[in-house]
Design a protein that fits this description.
- This protein has 432 residues and is mostly beta strands.
- The longest helix has 15 residues.
- The relative contact order is 0.12.
- The protein contains two helices and 31 strands.
- Strands 20, 23, 25, 26, 27, 28, 30 and 31 form an eight-stranded antiparallel beta sheet that branches.
Length: 432
Amino acid sequence: AFLSNELSNFLYKSAVTPDFTALGTTVPAQILEWNYLAAGGIYQSLTLSGTGTLNFAYKSGDTIPMTFSVEPTVCTVQVTGADGTVLFDASYKNLNTLSLRKNTVLTFETKASWTKTEGCEAYGEATYVFTANLTAPAEFRINTSEIYRGEFAVVSAINIDDVSKITFSSSEPLPYIPKFSKSGDGVVSALIPVSYGCSGTSYVLTFGYGDVSQTLGLTVKYDKETQGYRYGYKDSSIDVNSNLFNTTYTDVQVETYNKLVKSICQQTSGDAMFDGAFLDYEDKGVLQTNGARLWLGFARNVLIYNGKTSTKKSFIHTGLDYGVTSATAIDVPALNAGKVCYVGTDDVLGKFVVVDHGCGLRSWYSHLTDNSIVAVGDAVVKGQSLGKTAKTGATGFTVEGRIHIGLTAYDQPVAPYGIWSDGGIILSSFDQ
């Protein structure tokens, strides 16, 4: 009777349950049902239950060796990510096809079975569970390989724990060092604006983090003919009366304005707050019922006249001027979500508001008739009113019935045309 009792299992070699090894460590079964052939041709059963799971660490690209002391008839592995997404569900022999790019915590559930055959010494099934902290190398991507001067590209990266440790160099001088900020789940991004004064060139951008050094190419084209009146780097003119010119655009006032803009751009910008396409004031209902006409496009060389007399002064237009035809005050909406970082008055800009959208991107709303609606620190959503404008009552150096909308990346004025559609600012995505 003893030889057929489960207490006699240590007498039988087939009673020894299979060992499962993963990443060089024996993993105990969480559930195991094992049947072995004992005396008299009777199968004895063992049922084992484990507690807890083992935790491993491994680098992306490493193999995940799994071995058994007794080869199972069938063995499948299901791998789930930290969010519960199933990333792999197949034979353990195909586990080398699992390719992951992001730092994450993975859960491995391995199910093995040993089929009962005639005269076999043992059969059964087992489930093994363990977790692994995946450490993947940093990876950088650029959202476009080609832009026009006055535009900006976006470089995004994953597997970055400390953005201050990202290194950067460029084959051609840039007036700034890209600053990375959080822009998504596990993703950081930095803007690469190119001045409208750039003559067109090719940049080789090198980013480093830890053991990773990666180069990205960016070609800058000189002009964008398809933008027509919006964007041509051509001469335009503005006719202002001598009183307005002498009270809002003296050399001292222009210098004060430039210093103010620079100081605002040097403020610390937060993580990305924008989402999707930015508003286009020419669209119906955004600023006015029938849309607002764009009077003066980005980067135009504006010649200043007093009637037919040239003042012999000019400036490069750093934004967009829209015509306002409403006799009553109308709302000026935020181009996208962000946080108000400046509200004030300047002789050149008049009453104005600046919104920080994160990642060093800011939008500027100038020549307002009223900017008392919001305050510094206010969080705003796309379309929320920042101030008022009307056909009359414009402030600062401008003509009546105009409102100026600008966009800066760091301290570089940039064209907004490319972020009106196609999802807005396209941040590189990284698949698992």
